[in-house]
Amino acid sequence: MAAVLALRVTARRGLGLGPAGLRAFWGSHSRQEDREVEADRAVLEKEERSEPSLICPPPRSRSYRPPEDLQSCLESHVREVFGPSLPEDWQQTPLQENRLKHRLLVRLAAELGHAVPNSQLHRMRRAGDVLAFYRTPVKDETKIDELAAAELPPNLKIIWQK
C-alpha cells in the first residue's frame, strides 16, 4: 500500500518512472557517491589485510635481577628528583609528595625494567623502602617448576603436564 502511494507522489511531482524518478523513489545515491563508497571499502579492506593477526604474544618474563650498582643508581635518581633538600642519609628521604614519588618510580622503572606494582605503592614511604624493593630478585618460575628441575631422590618423581 505504501509503495503505491509513493508511486503516486512521484508521478504527481513529474518525476515519472525514469532513472531520476526511480532514484528519488528508492533513495539511491548518485553513481559518483557509489564509486567513492566502493573506493573507501577497498582502502579499508587493504588496511585490514595489512594489519597483523591478533594472536596473543608470549607472556612477558617477570624475572628481575638487581644490578650491581643499584645503590649508586638509586641515590643519583633520588638526588636528581628531590634536589638539594635531601637529609644527610639519602635513604631517609620521605616520599610524601606524590608527584615526586611518581617521578622517581617512573625513572627507576624505565631504567631497571622492573616497576613497583600498585599493590605495593603504599609501602614506599622512604627512599630506603624503594631500595629494599629493588634489591629483591624476582624469579619467573613456580615452586613446581623448581622442584621438577632439581635433582630429586630416585623414589620421588614429579610429573608436570602443561
Shape: flat
How many H/I helices?
7
The count of β-strands is 0
Query: What letter string, H or E per element, gives the SSE order?
Result: HHHHHHH
What proportion strand? under 5%
Structural class: mainly alpha
CA-based gyration radius: 34 Å
Helicity level, as a percent range?
Answer: 40-55%
Instruction: Report the biggest beta sheet as strand number plus sense, adding barrel if it closes.
Output: none
Rounded to the nearest angstrom, the distance between the terminal CA atoms is 66 Å
Which regions are unreliable across 5 or more consecutive residues at pLDDT < 50? none
Mean pLDDT across the residues is 76
SSE topology sketch:
Blueprint: H1 2-12, H2 19-26, H3 31-50, H4 70-82, H5 98-112, H6 127-135, H7 143-149
Structure overview:
This protein has seven helices and no strands. The longest helix has 20 residues, at 31-50. The chain has helices spanning 2-12, 19-26, 31-50, 70-82, 98-112, 127-135, 143-149. It is mostly helical and 162 residues long. The chain starts with a helix and ends in a 13-residue tail after the last helix.
Notable characteristics:
single chain, flat, 162 residues, 51% helix
